[in-house]
Design brief:
The protein is mainly α. The protein contains 27 helices and one strand. α12 runs parallel beside α17.
């Protein structure tokens, strides 16, 4: 799927693939069968069928996010990787969010095509909350701007989430190990530190994931063993997330762009 819908190409172009290979994420995805499963379960066909690939470039959201440094931060803390891993990027391509962005500008198109509604409907917003992106957007002022211009309100009206449930995309996200990946790359740790996990327990998301066996599956497919083998778990416990962020240069970058406060929040 990732190859078919162009995600792999983008990942190579942006350097994400290199980073993921270096950190062992790609190896984990192959080792746990996630890549094979993406092909096997027909995710590609579904994404093409629901038309999810052409609008995003057109509406200009990406440009704005690069300008304010949000994209850089997201790359630095691994959020972009997660978005690719969970299929969010694929979905955004499929619903057309990316193509329109470059062509006509963010605000008008977001209003006209109801992009925000779609993002809520397809579960993108939920994922963004789960992985801490929304917190960052609030910190950088992006959320406030979006509420002011009415973008958030617009995206509530389309009903894409129901469609995704109906066609099984939500189930697929669980099946392909998205939750596993979140644990593997340290997002869960960050979510605990920032209080996001507490919120998710409150709304029952975590309980649901336990109920459907996601946690058990982590062990079953060998993710935990792999993490021990490549030293990810040991590193986590031994030096902590912040130390790792220093080691890979994220802290320095965040100092440079003036957003170090975000990392202190997750320390």
């Amino acid at each position: 799927m990732l190859y078919d819908i162009g995600v792999i190409d983008i990942l190579y172009d942006t350097g994400v693939i290199d980073i993921r290979y270096d950190t062992g994420v790609i190896d984990i995805l192959y080792d746990t069968g996630v890549i094979d499963m993406l092909y096997d379960i027909g995710v590609v066909d579904i994404l093409f069928d629901i038309g999810v690939i052409d609008i995003r470039y057109d509406i200009g959201v990406i440009d704005i996010r690069y300008d304010i440094g949000v994209i850089d931060i997201l790359y630095d803390i691994g959020v972009i990787d997660i978005l690719y891993d969970t299929g969010v990027i694929d979905i955004l391509y499929d619903i057309g969010v990316i193509d329109i962005r470059y062509d006509i500008g963010v605000i008008d198109i977001l209003y006209d095509i109801g992009v925000i509604d779609i993002l809520f409907d397809i579960g993108v917003i939920d994922i963004l909350y789960d992985i801490g992106v929304i917190d960052i957007l609030y910190d950088t002022g992006v959320i406030d701007i979006r509420y002011d211009i009415g973008v958030i309100d617009i995206l509530y009206d389309i009903g894409v989430i129901d469609i995704l449930y109906d066609i099984g995309v939500i189930d697929i996200l669980y099946d392909i190990g998205v939750i596993d990946i979140l644990y593997d790359i340290g997002v869960i740790d960050i979510l605990y530190d920032t209080g996001v996990i507490d919120i998710r327990y409150d709304i029952g998301v975590i309980d649901i994931r336990y109920d459907i066996g996601v946690i058990d599956r982590l062990y079953d497919i060998g993710v935990i063993d792999i993490l021990y083998d490549i030293g990810v778990i040991d590193i986590r416990y031994d030096i902590g997330v912040i130390d790792i962020l220093y080691d890979i240069g994220v802290i320095d970058i965040l100092y440079d762009i003036g957003d170090i406060d975000i990392l202190y929040d997750i320390e």
